[in-house]
Specification:
By secondary structure, the protein is of the alpha+beta class. It has a domain of 91 residues. Helix content is 48%, strand content 14%. The protein is built from five helices and five strands; from the N terminus they run E-E-E-H-E-H-H-H-H-E. Strands 2-1-5 form a three-stranded antiparallel sheet, with no helix packed on it. The chain has a two-stranded antiparallel ribbon with strand order 3-4. Helix 2 runs antiparallel to helix 5 and helix 4 runs antiparallel to helix 5. The longest helix has 21 residues. The two termini are 17 Å apart. The relative contact order is 0.21.
Length: 131
């Protein structure tokens, strides 16, 4: 029998079957090489099914950044917690954008805008494991 395993942002207890994994970088078919797969797998967060569906119905997928930016991101210490990784990636992208001489600033700006919109749904649909 399934046990209540997650707490929502509004403090409800829910079952694992009421959640889904969300890749902040989606369109799996766009990411095929080892570095692309590593980049896509960096930020996967667990959300309520409702928030996950709403996110995908209202937001276009982020652009596929150039390989150099993917490589840079994959080598950043983003943290262990899935939500911290997302927040730290948003912070890192902002730093790349502010460094106007960085050749990856344009792609970083596109990702940053998309991730800022995703952040609303991630904050709304976030679930934390209970012990």
């Amino acid at each position: 029998m399934e046990e209540l395993s997650y707490r929502t942002a509004d403090d409800r207890l829910i079952y694992p079957s009421e959640t889904q994994r969300h890749h902040a970088v989606w369109r799996k078919a766009w990411y095929n090489s080892p570095i692309e797969k590593a980049f896509r797998g960096l930020v996967i967060v667990r959300l309520t099914i409702g928030a996950h569906r709403q996110l995908h119905s209202e937001i276009e997928p982020p652009i596929k950044p150039n390989l150099d930016l993917m490589h840079e991101i994959c080598h950043q210490p983003l943290g262990r917690n899935e939500y911290d990784r997302f927040d730290n990636l948003v912070t890192y992208l902002g730093e790349v954008v502010m460094n106007h001489g960085n050749r990856n600033a344009e792609d970083a700006a596109h990702l940053l805008v998309n991730f800022k919109v995703q952040q609303y749904f991630i904050d709304k649909g976030r679930v934390d494991g209970i012990q």
